[in-house]
Specification:
It is built from 14 helices and eight strands. By secondary structure, the protein is α+β, with helices and mostly antiparallel strands. α2 crosses α4, α8 packs across α14 and α10 runs antiparallel to α14. It is globular, with a radius of gyration of 23 Å. Bound molecules: adenosine-5'-diphosphate, potassium ion (K) and magnesium ion. It is found in: Mitochondrion matrix. One of its GO terms (molecular function) is ATP binding. Pfam families: BCDHK_Adom3, HATPase_c. Keywords: ATP-binding, Kinase, Mitochondrion, Nucleotide-binding, Phosphoprotein, Transferase, Transit peptide.
Length: 397
């Protein structure tokens, strides 16, 4: 039975339609094995800035050559990882990710040697295409994980967290090197590729707050005020990494505050009262010689002790649980109506990737993320970011 499944798994790979012979698979397998033996070449933010500062044709060709060699190495490790998963995990959405990776691996690997500007331009088009193709990998992973965990409950204890950690850490890196090359073509003031040489945590916070307020208002019909204290200097950083972290943390904080202080009030009168008296989310910005720290404190009631060990697990969310609890209670009134508006895949919460993925983004360039819950009162999250730009990129390739 097992070998039949393995055969099915092997022969259902893409390209098997184009060359449905074992020859193709052997060539492909050998290539994956060969690339997976190579070590990745990591960079620091400062090295990337240094390289891309005064960009010219020759440097673009050099950059393209780097990506041309580096992407298949990083992809090969993940392809091997995906193959080591149990068969029932790799069907459905995770199989689609596997196909995307194999296709990316083959198309980059088979791209001709980059010798001149024409090659470089064509390669850049391919990179843009690959970045677009992989845009929904996180959603696929979340979906695949849910299905796998459902199936696994009947079979065995399945812990995919470190696998997902590696997948996503590697993805952050691959995206970064691909987009860095693509964006080196565009000159934006203050930017070298995707890196903002003077990225302002305060500005990122303002932007994330505005976006979060919009999402929160759409979801609950109310937003939570934020009070910001302290100031920090700018850092060389990739703004979308910081944006992801701040948006996810603010969403979590706002959701907790709204659910504790707003929806728990039962009557219309209470609702109107509590709308204006929601406790602020407090953000503190500080810096030391090597790090910038952002602390986000909310008074959303903290995290119950039985839930706390799970919050950094991929796919873990209390969104469903709340809905179930609510359905058990009679006459939820306004609360019922508003909870119904909250879709599981909605942007406010529910995917269960916010905390663990924010932590990965923080760690990618040498930072960290810690959560401290004060049960019954609120939650503090500390984000530490390197401000030197001298830390090598992520631990996983
Ligand atoms: P999601 O927000 O999609 O549920 P996250 O990974 O962002 O996934 O968070 C996981 C869970 O941790 C949340 O569902 C919530 O129960 C809990 N949590 C996270 N941040 C807070 C917070 N600031 N206050 C209370 N609970 C929180
Ligand atoms: K989670
Ligand atoms: Mg969240």
């Amino acid at each position: 039975m097992r070998w039949q499944r393995l055969l099915l798994w092997r022969f259902s790979r893409p390209f098997s339609q184009q060359a449905s012979t074992t020859d193709y698979l052997t060539v492909h397998d050998n290539a994956v094995a060969r690339y997976a033996k190579k070590e990745p070449r990591k960079n620091t933010i400062n090295q990337l800035i240094q390289f891309g500062k005064h960009i010219n044709e020759q440097k673009l060709i050099q950059s393209a050559r780097f990506v041309h060699q580096e992407l298949p190495v990083r992809l090969a490790h993940r392809i091997i990882d995906l193959r080591s998963l149990p068969y029932y995990v790799v069907c459905g959405p995770i199989k689609r990710i596997y196909d995307v990776y194999v296709e990316a691996f083959e198309s980059v690997r088979n791209f001709r040697k980059i010798q001149d500007s024409a090659d470089e331009k064509e390669f850049t088009v391919l990179l843009k295409h690959l970045v677009d193709e992989s845009a929904n990998v996180v959603e696929l992973l979340a979906h695949g994980l849910r299905l796998a965990l459902l199936k696994a409950s009947e079979r065995e204890h399945l812990d995919l967290d470190s696998f997902v950690d590696q997948m996503l850490m590697s993805r952050i890196g691959r995206r970064m090197i691909a987009e860095q090359h693509v964006m080196l073509h565009e000159s934006r003031p203050g930017f070298v590729g995707v890196i903002n040489t003077n990225c302002s945590p305060r500005e990122c916070l303002d932007i994330a707050y505005q976006e979060c307020s919009r999402i929160c208002f759409r979801q609950y019909g109310v937003t939570v005020p934020v009070q910001i204290r302290g100031s920090v200097s700018t850092i060389p950083y990739i703004p979308y990494h910081l944006h992801y972290i701040l948006l996810e943390l603010l969403k979590n904080a706002m959701r907790a505050v709204v659910e504790k202080h707003f929806f728990r009030s039962r009557t219309q009168k209470d609702l109107l009262l509590s709308k204006d008296s929601l406790p602020c989310i407090e953000v503190l910005l500080t810096q030391g010689p090597k790090q910038v720290t952002i602390r986000i404190s909310d008074q959303g009631g903290g995290i119950p002790l039985d839930i706390l060990p799970n919050v950094f697990r991929y796919g873990f969310s209390t969104v469903n649980r709340l809905r179930e609890e609510q359905q058990q209670q009679e006459g939820g009134g306004e609360w019922d109506l508003l909870v119904q508006r909250q879709s599981v895949d909605g942007p406010m919460a529910g995917l269960g990737f916010g905390l663990p993925l924010s932590k990965l983004y923080a760690q990618y360039f040498g930072g960290s993320l810690q959560l401290v819950s004060m049960d019954g009162y609120g939650t503090d999250v500390y984000v530490h970011l390197d401000r030197t730009g001298d830390v090598l990129e992520g631990v996983e390739i």
